[in-house]
Amino acid sequence: MHSTMFDVKVDRSEDVALHDQVAGEIRRAIAAGEASPGERLPPAKDLAAVLGVNSNTVLRALRILRDEGLLDFRRGRGVTVAGTVHEGAVIERVRDLLESARFHGYRGEDVVEIVRSLS
Predict the structure, then answer these.
(1) What pLDDT score does 93 carry?
(2) SS3 14
(3) Is 49 helix (H, G, I), strand (E, B) or coil?
(4) Distance CA 49, CA 30 (A)
(5) Is the pLDDT of residue 69 over 60?
(6) What is d(CA 24, CA 108) in angstroms, rounded to the nearest whole number?
């Protein structure tokens, strides 16, 4: 992943926020198979230096991808690829479902039971 990630570029002339561009490039690399589950990403400060952006921009992108289920943050191990884009899409939809269920008064356990009854 190290060599792949150093090919990531951002375009300051685009209307897309820099952190979203960084997240999109990493997401693309994972989808293209350039980064496999378990593979470590370069440190955020290294990515930021190569991209010419602030470390906080990279960290924000990494947190987005963590929340999508694509990356895993582990103390002492750094940031690793946790899953594929497809897994991340499913995780994101499940989070949306849980948010909607909570809005309508259901607990997580209730949603699990509903899913079990449909399987």
Answers:
(1) 81
(2) coil
(3) helix
(4) 21
(5) yes
(6) 30
Per the listing, tokens 């884009």 go with 85
Q: Give the CA distances from residue 6 to residues 9, 41, 53, 106, in Å, rounded to whole numbers and listed in that order.
A: 8, 10, 13, 44
Tokens 């991340």 correspond to 88
CA distance 84 to 116: 24
Amino acid at 66: R
Biggest CA–CA distance in the chain, Å, is 51
pLDDT tens readout for residues 37-46: 888 988 889 8
* Phi, psi of 50, rounded to the nearest 5 degrees: -65, -40
Query: Which residues is 71 bridged to in the sheet?
Result: 81
DSSP-assigned beta bridge partners for residue 78: 74
- Whether residue 2 has pLDDT greater than 60: no
What distance in Å separates the CA atoms of residue 29 and residue 23, rounded to the nearest whole number? 10
Residues 29 and 47: their CA atoms lie apart, in Å, by 14
Instruction: Work out the number of other CB atoms within 10 angstroms of the CB of residue 65.
Output: 23
